[in-house]
Amino acid sequence: MPALDDAGNEELPSAAEKNLFGKYEVGRLLGYGAFAKVYHARDVLTEQSVAIKAINKQRIMKGGLAANVKREISIMRRLRHPNIVRLLEVLANKKKIYFVLEYAKGGELFAKVAKSRFSEHLSRRYFQQLISAVGYCHSRGVYHRDLKPENLLLDENWNLKVTDFGLSALTDQIRPDGLLHTLCGTPAYVAPEILSKKGYDGAKVDIWSCGIILYVLNAGYLPFNDPNLMVMYRKIYNGDFRLPKWTSPDLKRLLSRLLDTNPETRITVDEIINDPWFKIDYKQVEFHCDHLELKDDDDTATGNNLKVMNAFDIISFSSGYNLSGLLDNQEIGERFLSTASPEKVIEKVVEVAEAEGLTVVTRKEWCVKVVGGYSCNFVMAVELRRLTEELVVVEVRRIEGEVGPSRRIWKDKIRPGLSNLIYQTGSADCR
């Protein structure tokens, strides 16, 4: 029987704990949730410490969270800031997706503030780093929507690192009314406009959560808290909170603007940066806008028009799992690896298809579409994407008749004709 953690989640197999894809030596469990576990690991080549977030595919599929995982990858790809945990790599096998993340040695900020409230000076330092990260996210169309001390980590130099973008939203999720409508977040940190269920501005709800965090750092406890959730929500909605007596006048004024229940008059990031309390010892963060070497869907390989696989494709290719959602209910999809050149694959597909009486209606360097067959109710599209310099992924999408010989065109005729091009491996791992 596999080992289980305290939440009843299956641990990584012992072999994977020792050596993940031959690249990482996986060590102790750092934390876990309903769908993922985070481990400390070591890069075998560089000796660098990293964090590995292992996501159980079956659990997220059952929980309907596949889109969240895809969005989290998309978001973390575009974020490069010293106060945001960096996504280094995405790996996948048949059962799990692995986020290889920058390791924050200092642990959660929550663990520190739970022991004792911070001085006003230290509260300001971490709040400055938080606002720098949040403002950077907003400038790139990313809204975190679950900011809280548990999602703020500390590195070896005790600098803040924002993490866990699983509930984040992108600008393209905004509806025509200019607002977001998904209800999410942690109850004690949720903004009052979310409770009204009329839509909200992602930037403004993040600012509210930043206000809650600053309050907690300074006070050592939450501004809105009650064992009865509805009572707590009522307090949030009405802005019913009290500031500790040790809070300075300037900090009181800033907190009152951060925790303004009216999003229209709530303070903005630009206004925060120019606030007298905030500006004390504040240094503008310098960062580089470099990007992960992952290709977008419309990127092409150097020197030709063959599409390059991005992280979503690699995850989708893992057996038994598909994030892309490209196929509708009528289409059947299948993928395999090949070491043959793209031209040779296309040439072979055309050869086998024409031998079966199919008509080639589209033929390009990286894709081919054929139709016809018995009763003219067979359609097949084959598309190639490069995975590595040696391997290409062949994706086959087809529509077949419900009955009759057309159901067997692919299985009995075309696929066997391509068998010598299919790269056989001992597992379905994509590395």
Automatic annotation (TrEMBL):
Instruction: List residues of the NAF domain.
Output: 304-328
Q: Which keywords has UniProt assigned to this entry?
A: ATP-binding, Kinase, Manganese, Nucleotide-binding, Serine/threonine-protein kinase, Transferase
> For ATP, which residues are the binding ones?
62
Q: Which SMART domains match?
A: S_TKc
Q: Is the Cell cycle keyword given for this protein?
A: no
Boundaries of every Protein kinase domain copy: 24-278
- Co-factor(s): Mn(2+)
- One short Pfam name that applies is Pkinase
What is the superkingdom listed in this entry's lineage?
Eukaryota
What InterPro entries does the annotation carry? Kinase-like_dom_sf, NAF/FISL_domain, NAF_dom, Prot_kinase_dom, Protein_kinase_ATP_BS, Ser/Thr_kinase_AS
An example GO BP is: signal transduction
PROSITE patterns assigned to the protein according to its UniProt record, in alphabetical order:
NAF, PROTEIN_KINASE_ATP, PROTEIN_KINASE_DOM, PROTEIN_KINASE_ST
- Cite a single GO MF annotation: protein serine/threonine kinase activity
Report which reactions are catalysed by this protein. L-seryl-[protein] + ATP = O-phospho-L-seryl-[protein] + ADP + H(+); L-threonyl-[protein] + ATP = O-phospho-L-threonyl-[protein] + ADP + H(+)
EC id: 2.7.11.1
Q: Family membership, please give it.
A: Belongs to the protein kinase superfamily. CAMK Ser/Thr protein kinase family. SNF1 subfamily.
Record's protein name: non-specific serine/threonine protein kinase
- Organism in which the protein naturally occurs: Cynara cardunculus var. scolymus
Q: What is the lineage of its organism?
A: Eukaryota, Viridiplantae, Streptophyta, Embryophyta, Tracheophyta
